[in-house]
Each structure stands twice: as C-alpha cells, then as structure tokens.
Amino acid sequence: MRWGTPPVRRRGREKKPLQYACTMKACGNRGNVSTRLAVLFLLIPRLCAAYLGIDPLRTELSVPPGGTLEGQIVLTNEKDVPVRIDVSFRDRSASGLVTDWIEIDTGEILLEPGESAPVPYRVAVPSGAAGEFFGRVGFSEVQDTGPGAVAVQTRISVPIFVAVRGTEDYRATITGVRVVSDDPLRAEVLVKNEGNVHVRATGECVVTTSDGDTEVLRMPVNAQRFPLYPARVGCLVAKTNEQLQPGQYIFDIRLRFPDEANVVSERFDVSVGEEHE
Known about the structure:
It is a single chain. The chain has no helices and 19 strands. By secondary structure, the protein is an all-beta fold. The protein folds into 2 domains: 39-143 and 152-164, Immunoglobulin-like (Sandwich), CATH 2.60.40.10; 172-276, Immunoglobulins (Immunoglobulin-like, Sandwich), CATH 2.60.40. It has a 5-stranded antiparallel beta sheet with strand order 3-4-6-10-8, with no helix packed on it. The protein has a 5-stranded mixed beta sheet with strand order 5-12-11-7-9, with no helix packed on it. It is globular, with a radius of gyration of 23 Å.
C-alpha cells in the first residue's frame, strides 16, 4: 500500500515531487453526562462482560491545578452466583513524575448475584501541574481452583483521564493517508498528536479529481471517536459505502482537534488502484 503525498507547491519553475514517507507499526486505536463543578464526565452505556457490569466504562475529567474531585465506578454482578472481583490501578501518565494524583480503593470486592457496589476514587491535581494524567482501573474475577487446576481470568480495563484545566495544548499534524479498500472506500489517516492531552479528533475527507476541480465524494474521519494520545502517532479511519474508481485523486482532510477552535488540515495526492491491494 502506498501512502499519499502532499500536492507539489509550485513557485516559479516546476519542482520535483516532495519526498514523503511515514512509518507505523500498527494502525488503529483499538480508541451519561454529569457536570459537577470542575468536572466533565463523558460516559457511555454500561459494559457487561458476561459476568460484570461496569458503569461508566470511560471517565474524562477536567480539573484545575490544585483542584480535587471525588467520583466512583459502579460494579454489578451479572451472574447468578457470588463473584469476587479484584480491583487494581495502573498509572499510564506520559510524564510519570507524579504518582499520587489519584486515590482509589483497590483489593477484592465480594458481590452477591445482582448486587452493585461502588469503587470510589479521589483525584487531587498538584499545583503547577500541566497537561494530562491518565490511568487504568482493572477489574478481574478471582476464581478458587483446586490443586493442579488452571484459572482463566477475564480482565477489564477502564480508563480515567484527568486534564489539567487551563494548561491544555492542542496541536497536531496530519502526516499521511492511504487507501485500504476502494469498494467500498476505506482509508487510514495518520495523525501525530503534538499536544499534551488526548483528543478525540473528528472531521471529514473530501475526495476530488486530481486537478481539484470536481468533488467525487466525502467521508467522515474517526466517526467512532477513538482517542489520539499525546506525543504519539495514531491512525484514524475514514470510510464510506461508496466505491472509488482507480485513478489519481486529491484527498483533502480536515480535523477538529478537538473542536472548531482548533482545526488541522492537509491535502494529499493519492493513487487508487492495484498498488493499494
């Protein structure tokens, strides 16, 4: 598969095409509203992993430097027998310099059939902090096994993001695009998050003829709202149910990063045909 190249910009005499390359190990981010003072919760429907309900599945907070906030994650036993759940936490913050920004009750919880129990936490953002703190709360069933038996555990990881309000840096560069399938059209957009917080960038890719005069189709980018983590390169999916015939095109990509106040855009020359298969 060939990555698209930015269109050649001509000034005076014609220039040779810009050398363009990008590398990636893997593509994909496989990425209730409640307002309370310094916090914004973005929650999605409860996850049920056969035996355990978790609500919310994702928590995103905004807290000022020196601020504190308390919250909870609610667990529900979906089985018809009691279960023991082991609760753990792992700090995944990029800086790794501050490890005491969150207090959370870890250890084991016994849940009777249909019973729910909260896992409380308290966030305390240090004064002078900037950017974002990020951690994952893990939940796994504790199974009692006899001698020689092997216990297979299912572990669910729930992210907690804490942005330090007023210090967010939203910057990004769209570095590449390639066509994965032309019928229906599916492309992958490579984006480098150069800021200090994760962003669920969304936008649109407008495909035109190679001369830029005729629009062929439009398709959304990152409709699933997968996150782009700070100081990393991520791959966002753009797709449509329409087919794109072989040929030369311009892909004009525009992303809200994360909203209309911060927009990044780039245009690429893309060849569609046998070379992308």
